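Action item from last week, closing it out:
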Amino acid sequence: MWVKKVLMALLPLVFATNLVWAQSPQQWSRFARESAEQGDLFATAFYYKKAAQADSANLSVWLEYGDALRITNDYQNAEAVYRYVFEHPLRTSDLDVSLYWQAKMQQHLGMYEEAEVNFTSYANYYSESGSFSKADAIQQRKSCQWAIQHIADTVDVEVKNIGVNSNSNYADFGGALLNDTTLIFTSLRYLKKDSSMVLHKSEFGERLKIMKAVKRDSTWISIALLDSMFYKKDRHIANASYYEPNKWLVFSQCPSYGNCKIYYSKWNGASFEEPEEFPDNINLEGFNTTQPFVATIDGAPTLFFSSNRPQGKGGMDIWYSIYKERHKTFAFPRNMGRNVNTKGNEITPFWNSDSNLLFFSSDWHEGFGGFDIFESKSNSLASMRPPANMGYGINTSANDLYFAEFPKDSMAIFTSNREGGMKMEGQTCCNDIYYYKIKSPIAPIIDTIVPDTTPLVPVLVEIEELNNYLPVLYFDNDQPNPKSLASTTTKSYYDCFHEYLLRRGEYLNEYTKHKKDAERDTAHQRITNFYLKKVEKGMTDFDLFCELLLRQLEKGDSATITIKGYSSTLAGTKYNLHLTERRIESLINYMDHYNGGILKPYLPHADKPIAAITFEKIPYGESKASPITSDDLNDKVNSIYSPDAMNERRIEILHVTKKESPQNDLE
């Protein structure tokens, strides 16, 4: 099966040569595979079409033809081919995935009702349990429902194509302002072509390059390479942005798709210097590291990028790394967290330092289809709020990426393969650069959160002020380490939290399945609210608590943290006592690994810490559980899946008190 290369928005748009003589289906398929290996995707689709037409009963070839059309964003024809495969009487079970892809193409085409039905059917009857396609079908069904509700809420901005002088018939994307009059962007464009758009042989395998355009009045002209060093015959160079304070141009360099590293080149006042690679802790060998953007946060350069490196949440995730002046390098990267990153792909990050907003694109968060642009407000980099969709008009059912905001120029720039752009193959084949004028206030955003006027991270004077930010954390039934009498665990609360989120659908189904009409709606809302306002909020509160605690520890303050635990009443007293001990231990384990171990030097096992954390543990077991919560194991609806039972399975940080630091103890 094809890999979804659109993740990188690096689509090599090379055209098929004219092979018109008769060939066998096997030969056409061989030509297609060879073209795919060379990155010639339009030729791949062309040859698979020939092979499919030559053998109409070979549904595997038809599926490959549909995949080739999908990769080139030919949604209309791909939908028809996938439908042909799925509805064919000779279809076998290994071709059931065609229904999933048909639904995806319908979603791209804005056929949300049809896509919703097909996603549901695929998830229920044709998908493999535990597969990504099943999970994605369930998520995209939700997106279709969301899109139907919000498509009429068009954002009040006038989106324009940036112009034919910058956008070619090929791929142009990732626009950013170098200064008031210079636009830089990535392009794949060809010079030697005839009127039929057939490429000259010398330009086969052409690579992506960084271009510039100069603005004259309201038109971008003088299209040229930014610098000859940003064009190489043996690799793609793309995704450039400029960090003014350090005069850095940061960009991706990719010898092949899915194998990128990020570099920077410094402007010396006259020219760009020879590019340097970011350190190995950023460019992790064997993984894809791309789409860099640098912003100043709390006075320090902070690098954002997208990568599929280990410890992520799904496919491509957004990561950040703070520049450490003392060591003259970037720190080990941290994941942006579960509110931003998902099982799907999050890419093309942009940080607005004026508003403390992260902009990015995702193909998982609820949207209009493909990649949508989202914004997320921050309490801190370690505590991002759930993202808001930027709204229809900025987003479409096609792919919308590379959002960048330039308030000084009252301009927002992004990339899309929506209908209406400069195309040479179909209506949605290729990326163009778009822009709109930023209004004051900024255009409304669907489902956005009321702006928060509090500081990015609250400033505390005394460590006891942490008692204003105490989190409560919730657990799935009998977690961690079910059916155990152990009082300790190696499991982190993060793992418990993530697994609990994955069971949200099960809790909804079990708690509502015997209820009807209004009672069912109320039950559904209770579970939804519990996950949102307690489970997810608890983790957000805990991340903020850890960030505030760290700042006090860095000042030399030591703290005693008192934690109490609860459980439901399903098991015996001794069992539940050990269970709550494990739950408290999982919280401490999370703190040990928090943000790459940044709290580790202050934890009890640290060697001669400057400041220290001491834990006072109060494992209550079920002795404090509400008497109205069911303890009948045969009544799982109320003893496990009800919000009342869910509320009992928790731990609380009861209070924080200041203690003398280790240095003072020694004296």
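Closing note: The first strand starts at residue 160 and ends at 161.
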